[in-house]
Design goal:
With 440 residues, the chain is of the alpha/beta class. It is built from 16 helices and nine strands. The chain binds zinc ion. InterPro entries: Metal_Hydrolase, Pept_M19.
Amino acid sequence: MKSALALLTIIGTALAASQKPLGGPIVDAYLGPNATALRAHALELMDKYPLIDTHVDMPQILRTLGRRPLDMVDDLDKHVPGHVDIPRMKEGKLGGLFMTVYSPCPNFIGQDPGPDFLNPLETVRDNIEMFDLIQNIVDEHPDTFAWAYSSADIRRNFANKKISALIGIEGAHTLGNSLSTLRIYAQLGAKYLTLTHICHNAFASSAGWGKGFEVTPIHPNNGLSDFGRALVLEMNRLGMMVDLAHVSWEVMQDVLDITRAPVVFTHSGAAAVNDHPRNVPDYILKQIGSGKGQNNGIILSVFYPIFIGLDRATVGRVADHIEHIASVCGRAHVGIASDFDGMYSSVEGLEDASKYPQLIMELLDRGWSDDEIKGVMGENLLRVMDAQDAVKESLKHEKPARDIYEKRQDLPAPWGGEDNKYLPTEVRKVVHARRQRDEL
Ligand SMILES: [Zn+2]
């Protein structure tokens, strides 16, 4: 949930920030007498290996705070309301982040997408503005950020003490029902696309908002549409990771049945730990792993209190999700995704971007080895990125998908005026002949 709730986040965090100091004290509260040693160990690991967060909604905060969002970009050096700014990213030793290109589902902002998603909307414009905002964020802070499109970029940036900046798109409702848009988004640097947000779209079925906010199924078996299958295969070809956060469980299965690359769940928990439709059920988790016939993907564990469980929304509960996912998929198939600035509250011990070390401390306290933690922090994700890039290389002989959403009524384009009188005579004749033939 975003936009409207972002305001609550801002107010809530501003209050919290004035009342509670960042850093040390909370460590003692959560991890007892070993806290000092665990913290030293965690920080040492984070100096050696990058921690990559695959879902950070900070750009929408800048867009929420000001009528001219680019004016807010400079402020990132200072405190920005919400969960994320540069001082807190540095305190939390963040190695890289996927910033989210996001514009809301139409129903979330009172717009009607129409029964076939054909009503005109501004999601493509808004997404382009979000790309532009993120480009400004990175380019205005070159001492902090460096662009990354591959694991090699991330390693190089980390060696240069820069935070890697990557882009993920949240929700295929922002494609304007078009694979052309997908290809241009890929050119703009998007490394993943979440197939839905909280609404269904022409490609795939959503998990909705969760309990009490279920969405009525529209696609066959509440899964992918045929056009959605074309989208997945085209993403494989483009080297864009298919993100299964937010989608229905049926879509998760449909994608696993056809994808040619590892999948990612960029901000999800385990349904066995907290029974919620946004989380991943065990029957899906069992298909992710390093074994024969399994998808070599990754589940990046979210910090969102509603998903991890409101009854105990703590750093320990986030670790419970990580450990459950790891117990089914293996420790090489789990990672970290905060959803910072995309949620109106946060968990105790992981309140903002300065607190990542506390999750590492929690895993150390539970006996995870340095190698395993290195994987959770980022190496597991880098492996998936490498695998996705290898798939792209292997598919470079394929031509771009030509599929057009079958419900679209704007093609062939009626752009020639009345009876196409503004087009060359030959074109007019061909179109006229075709129309007569179609009417027969
Ligand atoms: Zn989300």
